[in-house]
Specification:
The complex is a heterodimer of chains A (285) and B (365). Chain A is mostly helical. Chain A contains eleven helices and two strands, in the order ααααββααααααα. In chain A, strands 1-2 form a two-stranded antiparallel ribbon. Chain B has 365 residues and is mainly alpha-helical. Classes of the chains: A mainly alpha (285), B mainly alpha (365).
Chain lengths: 285, 365
């Protein structure tokens, strides 16, 4: 019983981490039609900012709070300078963002060297339920993920900013004609997606520690999750991320980890092939 | 069919003119050269061949080994160029075919002691063909045409999954791969790294290059060029677009398999990176750099990137990937047709597809 509960918690917390990472990727892919290969590096940057704050003696939570804003601002600048030129061609966008990601990743690698740098958890210890212990920080990540998910949903579905973003997605020409500054909306959306990645990086760095390939680890999983969930809505990628995250955390409990690892990808690709619109199709939020 | 061909040519001749208009003044000179009847492409190809032929005479042994590796990677780049530059399929997982052929021949050599050139090279080529047919058939064929994004991410995922599989599978050597593969043999002669291997690889590259050149200038290549320029119109002419794509994908995979088996025997070991995202993206860099859509561009890109990387690796190992990223970004933003577009005009890149023959026919009566 206890081990089942621990397994369930592990699966849930890994699922939450994947959802957190995929949120930004999904918003950029759905709202802008760009598969951002640099998203993994935004996660890395968020982790790096947190590490920097920690190593300079600032409290860790301060670094975690600052990370989304710094990465978001960085994303906004990148969008205005470079990403903006790629909107017409999705494949060129992939290659261009890949080049950007390469630059960021290798710069960070140069800064931190080939090390694995650890950042302690801001909320340490464990929560005891009867005889079982679960990590307090992982539990916090699950809570924050739920809050961020809810916040994003409300932002996109209930605010006028969300309405503008969705209008720009549905029909850019009409949105422009209605007085919405679409370039600004694109910039803000990209910055928002980058900020979410920065937050994800900041939150997961105590779990995975900081190394240059931190982001790449999640990138392909994230892309697959977005495709499985369905591009074009907010809910789709989140659902896909939940599914992929849960599967890739759950399968190793019942079969050899190597097989499980590959099986998740194979299943996902087969699923997308036969249901290209994804789990949740239709526009909505 | 005849009418379709005519219309196809019309489609193609529209292409270059439109893009020439917004090319800016710096591209005017190669265009003018091409218009004056001066063919740049054969000159570039000839120069590259001559340099490649005489190179080992001036190189020390260890540099010849390095040059052989570059030749094999150029062959690999050719396979990606065919798929992306000519058919417009973004294969982000080209290393899957390269690596699985490498692993295949490594296993043949390790477990069955088969190292004869006459067996292992066809075997590697066949592995490349089979894997690319399976993956390409799955990704490209079907009732609904697949989106470009799906194919790109599907190939990427395939390559990544194969990498993970090789890393975790004890039979394939796990993280370390398969070390100390014996050299290829022909009878009692062992083909070890050095000038002989260099010329052997160069010979194969030259043959494959000529075959590809023939292919892209043939009727099939004409349909491919149309596919790249305007897929819908080709579909309207009655071409089975998905089948064309799957065929090119398989041809690309076959060449990648050949390159992979040469690479495995040249290096003497295979390791999981050979299957994965690292090599897959590297080959994309070669082709984008040199110039996609020209066969020689892929070769030049591989040579330049590997050459500069080798040259810088002593002093600037850490910053080289950053420089590479910046250069790639600059090429994508300002020279989408790659370095070759500095000397090669748009009209010559797209090619004439038997226009000369047509002119002769018109002149005869």
């Amino acid at each position: 019983m206890a081990s089942t509960f621990v397994a369930a918690f592990e699966i849930l917390s890994f699922g939450a981490i994947i959802v957190l990472v995929v949120l930004g990727l999904g918003i950029i892919a759905s709202m802008m039609g760009i598969f951002n290969f640099a998203q993994g590096e935004f996660v890395l940057l968020g982790a790096y900012v947190t590490y920097l704050a920690f190593s300079r003696g600032a409290p860790i939570w301060a670094g975690m709070l600052a990370a989304p804003f710094i990465v978001g601002a960085f994303g906004f600048v990148l969008e205005a300078l470079i990403i903006r030129r790629f909107y017409a061609a999705p494949i060129v966008a992939m290659l261009g963002t890949y080049a950007l990601g390469l630059i960021i990743r290798e710069s960070v690698r140069g800064l931190i060297g080939g090390f694995y740098l650890t950042v302690p958890e801001p909320i340490g210890g464990s929560i005891d339920i009867g005889t079982m212990h679960i990590s307090a920080w992982r539990f916090t990540i699950i809570i924050i993920t739920l809050l961020v998910m809810g916040g994003c949903y409300l932002l996109l579905s209930r605010t006028s900013f969300g309405l503008r973003v969705r209008a720009t997605l549905e029909n850019p020409a009409l949105a422009r004609a209605s007085g919405i500054s679409t370039p600004l909306i694109y910039g803000a959306t990209f910055a928002f997606g980058a900020a979410l990645a920065g937050l994800a990086g900041a939150l997961i760095v105590p779990v995975f520690s900081l190394f240059a390939d931190l982001g790449i680890r999640f990138l392909i999983q994230g892309f697959v999750a977005v495709m499985v969930g369905g591009v074009g809505s907010f809910i789709g990628p989140v659902a896909g991320a939940g599914l992929i995250g849960t599967l890739s955390a759950a399968l190793p409990w019942i079969m050899a980890p190597v097989v499980a690892d590959v099986l998740v990808f194979v299943l996902a690709i087969v699923f997308i092939k036969f249901r290209p619109q994804g789990l949740i199709s239709g526009k909505g939020v | 069919m005849g009418a379709a061909k005519q219309a196809l040519r019309a489609t193609l001749s529209e292409g270059p003119e439109v893009s020439m208009a917004d090319n800016g003044p710096d591209q005017a000179s190669p265009v003018r050269q091409a218009a004056a009847g001066l063919k740049v492409l054969p000159i570039v190809e000839g120069l590259v061949l001559i340099v490649a032929l005489i190179l080992p005479l001036f190189l020390q042994d260890y540099l010849t080994v390095f040059a052989t590796r570059v030749i094999i990677l150029a062959l690999f780049a050719l396979s990606f160029d065919l798929v992306w530059g000519y058919a417009g399929i973004m294969s982000f997982g080209q290393a899957l075919f390269f690596g699985s052929a490498g692993y295949g021949v490594a296993l043949l050599a390790r477990d069955l002691n088969i190292t004869s050139i006459l067996l292992v090279l066809p075997a590697g080529t066949l592995i490349g063909l089979t894997t690319s047919l399976l993956l390409g058939g799955f990704l490209l064929l079907g009732r609904h045409p697949s989106s470009v994004i799906f194919v790109a991410l599907g190939t990427l995922t395939g390559s990544y999954a194969a990498d993970r599989l090789a890393r975790g599978w004890y039979y394939l050597g796990g993280q370390n791969g398969i070390p100390s593969i014996p050299p290829m043999s022909l009878g009692s002669y062992d083909l070890t790294e050095g000038p002989v291997y260099y010329y052997f690889a160069l010979g194969i590259l030259a043959i494959v290059y000529l075959l590809c050149r023939f292919l892209v200038r043939s009727q099939f290549g004409l349909a491919l060029a149309g596919l790249r320029e305007n897929e819908q119109r080709i579909a309207f002419f009655g071409y089975k677009v998905q089948h064309l794509k799957a065929i090119v994908f398989a041809v690309g995979g076959t060449i990648a398999g050949l390159a992979g088996s040469l690479y495995a025997f040249h290096e003497g070991f295979v390791w999981p990176n050979m299957l994965g995202v690292v090599i897959s993206t590297q080959v994309v860099l070669y082709v984008l750099f040199g110039g996609s859509g020209t066969l020689i561009g892929a070769v030049i890109g591989a040579v330049i990137i590997e050459g500069v990387s080798f040259w810088l690796s002593d002093n600037y190992r850490e910053i080289w990937p950053i420089i590479l990223g910046v250069l790639l970004l600059l090429v994508i933003l300002f020279r989408p047709l790659g370095l070759i577009s500095f000397v090669l005009g748009e009209r010559e890149r797209v090619g004439s597809f038997g226009a000369a023959r047509k002119e002769k026919r018109n002149a005869a009566p």
